[in-house]
Amino acid sequence: MKLAQGILFTERQILQRVDELAKQIEKDYQGRELVLCAILKGSIPFLADLMRKIHGDVRLTLIEMKSMVDGKHASILFTSSVDLSGKHVLVVEDIVDTGITLDYLMKHLEAERGPTSLKVCAFLDKPEARKVEVPIHYRGFTVPDRFVVGYGLDWHERYRNLPYITWVEPE
Ligand code: 5GP
Q1: 165 in ligand 1 pocket by Cβ < 6 Å?
Q2: What is the mean pLDDT of the chain?
Q3: By the number of CB atoms within 10 A of the CB, which of 44, 96, 106, 114 ranks highest?
């Protein structure tokens, strides 16, 4: 696979969209304590840009998830301990593809962590690949069914540092 020539979203487009999302989130959670629950590692640039634009009472917890390779196994590792019970929790995800990872996490958080509210903010949404319906309350952009990289998203750990979104394609 190689990096494509084209760009799906430029750095400027991304920062503008993140700004819009942050404004909406700030408005919706005004006067409430918000806990951002970000999934590592792909959401790091998005999280960093987004959280600095949300003014208000914002806390952060980080989660590492091992994806379900065989459809059976997934593990959730909380890398920092913020109590989510009774809190307004917003899951921050890089991309929703099949929806399996997010569906698993949402069910876990609802059943085990007792949040007052639980919503999802996904930087990218790839609806054509969806296998499980998951709610996306805040969406950055919709992308076609390609393997996208950049702005935190990797291909075998490469390209996370690109400030824009592009994709990889066969050589
Ligand atoms: P899902 O469980 O929704 O199929 O996939 C969730 C995870 O798979 C994402 O958080 C992301 O890490 C990875 N993923 C899915 N589609 C893509 C893609 O197009 N590009 C990259 N870099 N990762 C993806």
Answers
A1: no
A2: 94
A3: 96
